[in-house]
Amino acid sequence: MPPAINFNLVANELVAGLTRGAWIFLIAAGLTLIFGVLHVLNFAHGSLYLLGAYLSYSISVLTGRSDSAFWIALLVAPLIVAAAGGVIEVGLLRRVYRRQLLYQFLLMFALVYILAGISRRIWGTAPLQISRPFPLAGTLTLGPIAVPSYALFTVVVAIVAGILLALILFRTRLGKQIRAVAQDAEMASVLGIRLDLVRTFVFVFGSWLAGLAGVITAGQSAFGPGTDTDAVILAFVVVVVGGMGSISGAVVGALMIGLAEAVGVLFVPELSLSVVFVIMAAVLIVRPSGLLGVSQH
Amino acid sequence: MTRLATAFPKDGLARTAAHAVLLVIILLLVGVTADAGTLLLGSVALVYGVFALSFYFLLKYTGLLSFGQAAFLGVGAYSTAIVLKQVHAPLMTAFIVAPLVSAVFALVIGWLCVRLKGLYFGMLTLAFSQLLWAVASQTHYFGGGDGLNGVPADLIAGTPDRFYWLAAGFLVIAFMVVLLIGRSPYGLVLRSVRDNEMRAEFAGLNVKWLLLSAFVLSAMLAGWAGALLAIYNRGVFPDMMYWTMSGEVVIMVLLGGSGYAWGAIVGAVALTFLKQYISDATDYYELALGITLVVVVLVMPTGLGGFAKTLTGGLRQRIGTSVVAAD
Fold first, then answer.
1. Do residues B53 and B110 make contact, with C-beta atoms less than 8 angstroms apart?
2. CB contact under 8 A, B254 and A106
3. Residue B182, C-beta contacts closer than 8 angstroms, at least 6 positions apart
4. Dihedrals phi, psi of B314, to nearest 5 degrees
5. Measured between CA atoms, how close is A229 to chain B, in angstroms?
6. Which pTM value belongs to this model?
7. Are B190 and B252 in contact (CB under 8 A)?
8. Beta carbons of B124 and A285 less than 8 Å apart
9. What is the pLDDT of residue B327?
10. How many CB atoms lie within 10 A of CB A29?
């Protein structure tokens, strides 16, 4: 029996769905940016995301689990992940842009293994978690709706990240170059845009976003081996639903998936895992380019 | 063009037979000489060989890159578990039921997927395989996250070599099916679709149906692999259908060299033994495996098979002809 529907329940689930959507957007934003510009399916995105979570755990331990640990992690961990992304792009990815999809896939899969291997070596296999700093540990009550303050914080971070992304893409010279490369790399290169620099920046920035999402997750739930592969598939769903390479599509897709999961858990718990993949398949069948993607047919 | 030219001569059948005989000889030699441990690991490698051949078949003859091949491995495995455990049917029925159920699923899924191209095709196969994984993980009848355990397999119980011969038999059949289809008129038509879909359509071929038929055949082979895997493990688990499993089969085929049916088998065996030996030697097989794959991508773009071929020059070609000549 599904629970009786009343206003409080619906309102709470809506809020839960939207905050979950914000969290999913954080994971998916970097993936869709990288796909849109580099046309590479970054299966290692989840691994970089998990790296961000692991790093925040280490930072928390190093700083004696103090309240400021989380803030230091929020600042430092994404930067380290971004640096790792830079190494990956310059060292490996750069060599396969011109190669077949298959080999890019193989390289990405290799990175999933390598990062999982490194993580296992450093952090073991037990699930880890970090404590939330004081102001984010409680619950806010707005009338009948109860929201964990950490969920609200996640929404704020997602909005800030989204705005930052939009500002870079649409208000800077670099953003203009990125969009040019996304549209036609060869033409952009002919016009004097440094393809290699743009690509490196995009991968580094996408990795930074993955690391940021990882820190946010670390304060929210336990993480460990498997968190990476679960996250990247969720991000792929969002990217496909919204339209591959479309940032606004990622926003819409993430909110949709977040809401669908929240509603699914409530009404059909035995199908809660299936819901997102039903949506993914439906979008691909009806509109392969995604809700907000540009049709390539 | 050379491929088209070599496919037509009458020695095509003889050449296929020569390849199959070579495979049989290798499998016989390993089966007779290997110790129990190697045989046990070798058996699962052969099962993955069948799975890799199913993926190779689709990729090689149609150019379709599936990110959800594990769906049909899982469907074959689960239908085997149900047939043997719930219905108590004899063991060999599994090898009829599993490919048939896989084929039914592939008809529906494939009908929706083959209308899409490239990445979108891959993404939709991924969506369906994840959907099946999710359903299996959350349905009581399918055992939920634990899967179904205690699949009876009395026929091959006891010594490990019985399962080895079973898996070897199916590997040889799958290998011959793939090679024979490749040399048949149907295989040539498939390749023409792969090389130029629009031209094939203009030539009056029903492209969608051709792609769908190949998708279904590939799923049936994967279903066989699933049946073998269910029997080997005496159980089935949702993670057989998780996307990382679909990823592993891509790795196997590319590791061995995506240009040859041998490559799929070599890749499956290599990956299985690599995983086992590295995780025996160190606790961190992922790192070593990842680095190996990077080396393959950057240094051996044609896989182990292609690399060996480059090293030995035209040796393989000459051996091939002499075998055929002797035949």
1. no
2. yes
3. B7, B60, B61, B261
4. -90, 15
5. 8
6. 0.89
7. no
8. yes
9. 30
10. 28
CA distances from B71 to B104, B143, B261 (A): 12, 17, 21
User: Among B48, B27, B84, B9, which Cα is nearest to B275's?
Assistant: B48
CB contact under 8 A, B286 and A285: no
Q: Identify residue B278 by its one-letter amino acid code.
A: I
pLDDT at A134 over 70: yes
Instruction: Please tell me if residue B280 touches chain A, with a CB cutoff of 8 Å.
Output: no
Residue B71, token pair as written in the block: 């769906």
Q: What amino acid is encoded at B77 in this protein?
A: A
Phi, psi (deg, nearest 5) at residue B203: -75, 0
DSSP conformational letter for A128 = B
Is B135 at the interface with chain A, CB within 8 A? yes
Structure tokens at B283: 């606790």
Distance CA A17, CA A102 (A): 36
Which of A99, A102, A272 minimises the CB distance to B258? A102
For position B4, what pLDDT does the model report? Answer: 47
DSSP annotation of A96: G
Identity (one letter) of the amino acid at B200?
Answer: A
Q: Which residues of B touch A112 (CB under 8 A)?
A: 247, 290
- Tens-of-pLDDT digits for all 327 residues of chain B? 444 444 444 567 888 889 999 999 999 999 888 888 888 899 999 999 999 999 999 999 999 999 999 999 999 999 999 999 888 888 889 999 999 999 999 999 999 999 998 889 999 999 999 999 999 999 888 988 888 888 887 666 667 788 899 999 999 999 999 999 988 889 989 988 888 888 888 888 888 999 999 999 999 999 999 999 999 998 999 999 999 999 999 999 988 877 789 999 999 999 998 888 776 666 677 888 899 889 888 887 676 766 666 665 544 444 443 333 333
3-state secondary structure of A69: helix
Which of B56, B120, B249, B250 to mutate: most A Cβ within 10 Å?
A: B120
Query: Using one digit for the tens of pLDDT, what is the confidence trace for A210-244?
Result: 999 999 999 888 999 989 999 999 999 999 999 98
- Which chain B residues touch A106 with a CB distance below 8 Å? 250-251, 254, 293, 296-297
Contacts of residue B254 in chain A, CB cutoff 8 Å? 102-103, 106
C-alpha closest to that of B141 among B72, B79, B91: B79
Query: Given CB atoms, is A226 within the 8 Å cutoff of chain B?
Result: no
The helix/strand/coil state of B206 is coil
The residue assigned the tokens 């190494």 is A87
